[in-house]
Amino acid sequence: MSLFGRYIVSLALIAVAGVAWFGERFVLTQRVVALADMRFDRFQGELAAVDSVVAANNLNGEYFRFLGARPGKDLDASFLNPRANLVESALLLDRNFATLARSGRELSETERAVVRVKMHKSLLTETALMRKYILTDFDGKGLAYLILLIRPDIKNSHATLFATSFDQTTTVAFSRDTFNQDEKKLVSVLLERQHERVREFTIRGQRLAAVRRHLMPENLVFFEVTKLPAIYAYFSTYLLLLVIAGSLVSLWRGYSAQRYTRRELSERTLHGLKSALGAREQHISLLTNLTESDGNVREKLVASVDKEAEIEERLNVARAAQPEPKESPAIIIDVMPERRQFRFMNPARVVATGAHADHLNEGERRLRERAFSNELKGLMEALAHPAAPARTDDDSDLIRKIEEFEAAHRYPQIDQYLYYLNELYFDDVTSAELAEALRVAGDAVQSQSFALLLYDAAGAYFKTAFVHAAPDSLRSSFFLLVRDSVLPNDVADYGYIVANAQLKKDPYFRKRLPAEFTESLKGFHVFSISESYLRARIVFFDTARGGEISDVGVLASVRAYLRQLAPAVHMYIADHATEAVTGDARNLAVWTVKELRESIRLLEDSSTWISQYVFESGLMREEQLLLLSDISRLLEVGEKVVLFSPTRIGVAHRQGAAKLIEERVARVGKKFIVKESEFGKASRNLYTFAEF
Fold first, then answer.
1. Which residues are bridge partners to 640 per DSSP?
2. How far is CA 622 from CA 167, 403, 628, 673, in A?
3. For 683, which DSSP code?
C-alpha cells in the first residue's frame, strides 16, 4: 500500500474510534437520563399511593385514636408511617401544631414554623420535603394535621436527589453521605442556573450529570445528580489510543518503505543512462567504420554539403537585391459609441485645444442673473456661514428641566410589578406580603410609610387597621372621619392634604399623630378604594415629595394597581381584623368565600371546578329552594351549592358533575348562562369567583 493510502486508512480508523468514544459517552448519559425518569415516575407513584392511604385512613377514622392521647406519647406510632421506604418520619399535630404522636424524629423549630404559616400540601425547607394533610371528622371539620417527612433516597444511593422551589429560594439535598456541605452548596448554585433538561459539570475533579424534572402537582423542581465515570473507565478510550498507536506504526513503516523504493529507482535510472551511453558509443563506432571502408558514401556526403552551401549563397544575393521598406504612417481610429459622449483615440494623434470664450453672451448673462436671485444668494450665504447658536446667561431654566426629568423618571412604572399579585393570591395574605404589595405603590408616590384604614360602621369613622414604617401608636390614635374638618378625605379616588404649620398646631391633629413623627411630614396622599365590598382609605405619609401627584400617567397606574390589590386587602382583613365590618360572618361576600373555601379543602385531592349559573330573571323563593334541593342530591361528599342572589347560583364540584347540574338547571325553564372555571388554574383568590 502506498503512503497516501496509509494516510487515508489511518484517518478513517481514527474517525471511527472518535465517533465510538463520543457515542459511548452519549449512550451512558442517555442511560442516566432514563434511570432518572424511572426514579421520578416511581417517586410520583409512591406519593400518589401515600395520598390514597392517608385519605382512606382519614375517611375510616383510623386517626381518631391518636387525638385523645397525651402530647408526645408514642401510641402505636408506627401506624402513622404509611410507607417506611419513602417516609422518614410521620407526626400527628393538633390544631395548635403541638405534637400528639410521631414515628421518627421531631420537627425542628424552622420546620414547625413553615408548617404553621404555609398552606401548601408540599412544603420545602432547608432540610426536608414535608407533606401536609388535614385530618377531618365525618362531617368534614378539620381536627388535626398529619405531617410526613419525605426522603426519596432511603433505598437508593446511586445518585443524589436535589429539590428546589420554583422561585429557587430553597434548595434541599436529600442525600446525607454523597456530598459534604461545601460540595452541596456548589452543586446548589450550579443547579439554580440550569434551565436545560440535562447538564454536565465538574466539581473538584469529579464529573457530574444533572437531570431536571418538573413535578407540577407538587409545585417543585427535582434534580438527580449522578457521578459519571472517569475517562479511563470507558472502553472506547482504550480503542481510540490503540487505533492512534497502530496508525503511527503503519505510517512509520510506510515512510520507511517509501524511502527504500526511491533509492532503488534512482539506481535503476542511473543504470539505464549508462546503457543508453553504451548504445550511443556503439552506433558512433559503427558509422566510423562505414565511412572509412566505403569511399562512395564519403563522396555523397561531401556533394550534399556543397549543394546546401550553394542554395544558401543564392538566398543571400536575393535578399541584398530587395529595396529598403518604408515606415508606414500612424493609423488613427476614432470610435464614437451610440451611448457614450467620449472617444477612444490613438495616443499617437495629438489634438490641438481650441480657445474657450472667457465671457458669456448677453442672453446667458441675463439667464444667470434671473436664476440666482437675491433671496437665493442670501440663503447660500447663510448656509456657507451658519450663525452660532444663541447663548443664554441664565442656566437655571435648564437645570430646572433636568431636575424635573430626573424626578419624573426616578421611580419605575408600577405596572411592571403587577406580576407580584399572582404570587400574593396563592396563599393567605400575611402582614409582610401586604406591606410589600403596598410598598410598590409607595415607591411610585415617593413614600416609605403608609397606613390602611377601614370603615367602622359602629363608630362611623375610618379606623386604622394596618401601619408600616410608622409608629405603632397610630393604630389606636390615627383615624379619619367621613366629613373630616381636620383632614378632609371625602375623595372619589385620590386627594392630597398639605401638612402646613397651621395644621400641625391644631390640637385635634396632634392627638392623632405624635409630634416626633410630624416634624418632617409634608403632607398626606389619600387613596380611596371600594372594590370587593371594601370601604377603605390608604394614606401614604409624604416626607420627600412635598406636593400632590401631577403626573396623570403615574396617578392612573397607582389607581389601577390599588384596584387590583383590593382583593388581597379584603383577604387580609377577613383573616385578621374580625372587628371590621368586612370581617363579619354576616357579610355576604365573606360568607360566600368561607363556604367555597371549605368545599375546596374537602376536594383537595382532585381538581375543583366552580360553576356559576346566571339566570335572565330572578327565581321565586319556591323555585330557589326546589333547585337547591335537587342539586344537593346530585352532589357528592365535599361538593357544595351556594345561592349568591335570586339570579345567581354557584356550585363547587368535580369535573364530572358539570353535565348533570346543567341538565337540572335547564329544567327551570328560564334562560341562563354558565360561567365555569377551574380553581387554581387562572386564580386562587376566591373573591374573584364570588359574583353577585
1. 652
2. 52, 69, 10, 21
3. -
Q: Collapse the DSSP code of 83 into the 3-class scheme (helix H, G, I; strand E, B; otherwise coil) and give the result.
A: coil
Q: How many C-beta atoms surround the C-beta of residue 33 within 10 A?
A: 17
| pLDDT value of residue 586 | 47
Residue 144's DSSP bridge partners are 135
Q: What angle do CA 488, 493, 495 make, to 5 degrees?
A: 35
In the prediction, which pLDDT does 222 show? 80
List strand residue ranges (DSSP E) for 228-327, in order: none
Q: Residue 381: which pLDDT band, with cuts at 50, 70 and 90?
A: low
Amino acid at 449: S
The C-alpha cell at 70 is: 397525651
Number of C-beta neighbours around residue 682 at 10 A: 10
Is 241 or 407 the better-scoring residue by pLDDT? 241
**In the block, residue with C-alpha cell 377603605:** 536
The burial of 590, by beta-carbon neighbours within 10 Å (0-12 exposed, 13-18 middle, 19 or more buried), is given as buried
Mean pLDDT of the chain: 77
Q: How many percent of the chain have pLDDT more than 70?
A: 75
Q: Do the beta carbons of residue 195 and residue 222 sit within 8 Å?
A: no
- CB of 449 within 8 A of CB of 524? no
Confidence category of residue 585, pLDDT binned at 50, 70, 90: very low
SS3 548: coil
- Torsion angle of alpha carbons 354, 358, 363, 367, nearest 10°? 110
Query: DSSP labels for 122-136?
Result: EEE-SS-EEEEEEEE
Amino acid in the structure at residue 218: E
pLDDT digits (tens, 9 = 90+) for 223-232: 888 888 777 7
Q: Is the pLDDT of residue 172 over 70?
A: yes
In whole angstroms, what is the distance from residue 598 CA to residue 67 CA? 22
Dist CA 210 CA 202 (whole Å)? 11
Q: What sign results for the dihedral spanned by CA atoms 97, 98, 102, 105?
A: positive
Task: Classify 311 in phi/psi space as left (phi over 0), alpha (psi -120 to 50) or beta.
Answer: alpha
Closest residue by Cα to residue 499 from 459, 452, 546 = 546
pTM for the model stands at 0.35
Looking at residue 322, what is its pLDDT?
A: 67
CB 429 within 8 A of CB 572: yes
Cα gap 314→262, rounded to integer Å: 57
Q: Give me the helices (H) in 520-587, please.
A: 552-576
